Amino acid sequence: MGVTVAIDCMGGDHGPVVTVPAALAFLRSHPDARAVLVGREEALAPLVSQVASEFGDRLRVRAASEIVEMDEPPANAMRNKKDSSMRVAIDLVKTGEASAAVSAGNTGALMAISRFVLKMLPGIDRPAIATILPTLKGRTYVLDLGANVDCSAEHLLQFGVMGAMLVAAVEHLDRPSVGLLNIGEEEIKGNEVVKQAGELLRASGLNFYGNVEGDDIYKGTTDVVVCDGFVGNVALKTSEGLAQMLATFLRQEFSRNWLTKLMAIVAMPALKGFKFRVDHRRYNGASLLGLRGVVVKSHGSADAYAFEQAIARAAEAAGNRLIERITERMSAMNEVAA
Amino acid sequence: MGVTVAIDCMGGDHGPVVTVPAALAFLRSHPDARAVLVGREEALAPLVSQVASEFGDRLRVRAASEIVEMDEPPANAMRNKKDSSMRVAIDLVKTGEASAAVSAGNTGALMAISRFVLKMLPGIDRPAIATILPTLKGRTYVLDLGANVDCSAEHLLQFGVMGAMLVAAVEHLDRPSVGLLNIGEEEIKGNEVVKQAGELLRASGLNFYGNVEGDDIYKGTTDVVVCDGFVGNVALKTSEGLAQMLATFLRQEFSRNWLTKLMAIVAMPALKGFKFRVDHRRYNGASLLGLRGVVVKSHGSADAYAFEQAIARAAEAAGNRLIERITERMSAMNEVAA
């Protein structure tokens, strides 16, 4: 039997008009899977009733009366909104009614609620967020992109284990390679924490490649790139800024005058091919790792296509035993250490 | 009278075939300026003799018998190569024969030798490297990109002062805005050091904008972006990797078949306009800041056009009293604090 994904249908910038069509598309392309749509019944029922016969019991609605706002303080969402669509979706993972939860809502609230409801896996101190980036060779998983600043070497080691197990589960790689993000100067290889983390990773039994630099992310040098949440956030946001600037410059050059506009029309097929290859929607769906359950965060502005990718990613991770893989790896590592 | 720039002609991947033509182009476009070409006489003399009459005493050669290798340990270059072109160029700044030095050589060695020969400015603990990046609005100066890992809040404050004074000198801005690179999560605004640095910058009298995120670099939100050397290195290298990946994808899409190759030919003018706007050669020339003298580091692979930009940048900084500006600002700040 396939996996059941609990979908927070009210989260994100668009809510049900995006999340429900995405869920239906996911069910169509995954005939073994099931989905539980969580949210306000009056918003979901009309969208679902039309397709009830198509999916039968593979598609269910679970009512949740509240919504976590995008700018709401996480502590507030956690304490005061026990019937929010986000909370109920995660509760379904906790009770085992669903194998994974997906939300495009408030990241901080999703992290706080997931941690509170699901608890951490043994041996993992903090949850991490792993995102997928396109590379010259395919794709790379980078973590942490969450809120883990001031990390210790042990935290970075745990990120390495979780990232490797994520890639093993969703990309079906036996021994994903793990790189530690560092700086290039030969004389001074990183700060103290990173140096220690390198030693821990080398002794971890993981397929540790060694240090990588910022440009290795997009070269695709390793399957996993490990860094603390501060550095990861800067790397990701800097990339977003650069990509936006380059896209703007390209657009401006092609819309300078009627001649360049004509050039754009002629070159459209090649430009479209380019656009597809770097389409961030294909990489949507960041994994919250270290929890006793699969939780995937979609970008808040995701459209239906992008949100569908996040649901599929959650189903893939749950169907391929992500949580068990992390647990086994951590316990094997701790046995060696003991 | 204009400034005199000491040019390490032997450094970089190409040596005199790039550095000498760049120096001559610089002298042609800066009729007030002078240049001292430093390096092996037998390599420089033939290139200079042809143009001696054109420049008169604006162009001189200073012999230096040794060369610092690109992969040489900095400590070795500093101790054992006292007659290297790099060392002699910096010595000329020390003695006042030149107002600035430029090198495309080994970064670590340039940093170590500059620090040893020129010494630090009062109140500055560590030298920093500031680079220029293109933005949607123009350009932004980012520092540190050197080897300053494990920075304190005071170091970040000093970077802010030095970056602002650099922009004041070379971009002729009265009160350049300074941003502190941080992460976006509302709940957890950065690590402890960055939080403290924010407080120091707020009280510094600089035009402090507040926190910026990675994407603000390329948005051009502030004139200066301050971060520690680890984060800065990752941001810069990640940008290089992304830009290379995007360029590769674009090239691949346009060379897929004869039809897309034709598209590329048609679109060439627009693609060239795009290429010019992001041409990193225009931004060549990173400033080594905090020293008692102007030192500019060119990219090792720079061509003559790129190296000329680095020379011009050094001349601009020296001609606009960069060192005095930093000294005055630091002493004003310390008087307030005292």
Describe the structure.
By secondary structure, chain A is an alpha/beta fold. Chain A has two domains: 1-121 and 290-304 and 311-316, Isopropylmalate Dehydrogenase; 125-288, 3-Layer(aba) Sandwich (Isopropylmalate Dehydrogenase). Chain A is built from 13 helices and eleven strands. In chain A, strand 7 (177-181), helix 8 and strand 8 form a beta-alpha-beta unit. In chain A, helix 7 crosses helix 8. The two termini of chain A are 38 Å apart. The model of chain A has no long low-confidence stretch (mean pLDDT 92). At the A-B interface, helix 9, helix 10 and helix 11 of A face helix 9, helix 10 and helix 11 of B.
The CATH superfamily of the largest domain in chain A is Isopropylmalate Dehydrogenase
- Number of domain units of chain A: 2
On the 0-100 scale, what is the average pLDDT of chain A?
A: 92
Number of contiguous helices of chain A: 13
Low-pLDDT ranges of chain A: none
Oligomer: homodimer
CATH class annotation of the largest domain in chain A? Alpha Beta
CATH topology of the largest domain in chain A: Isopropylmalate Dehydrogenase
- Most extensive interface: A-B, 67 and 66 residues
Care to count the β-strands of chain A? 11
Question: What's the Cα radius of gyration of chain A?
Answer: 21 Å
Shape of chain A: globular
Largest sheet of chain A: 11 strands, mixed
Spatial order of strands in the largest sheet of chain A: 3-2-1-4-11-10-5-6-9-7-8
Q: What would CATH call the architecture of the largest domain in chain A? A: 3-Layer(aba) Sandwich
* Percentage beta strand of chain A: 15-25%
Distance between the termini of chain A: 38 Å
Helix/strand-derived class of chain A? alpha/beta
Q: Note the run of SSEs of chain A as H and E.
A: EHEHHEHHEHEEHEHEHEHHEEHH
Helix content of chain A: 40-55%
GO molecular function (chains A, B): phosphate:acyl-[acyl carrier protein] acyltransferase activity
Protein name (chains A, B): Phosphate acyltransferase
GO cellular component, one term (chains A, B): cytoplasm
Subunit structure (chains A, B): Homodimer. Probably interacts with PlsY.
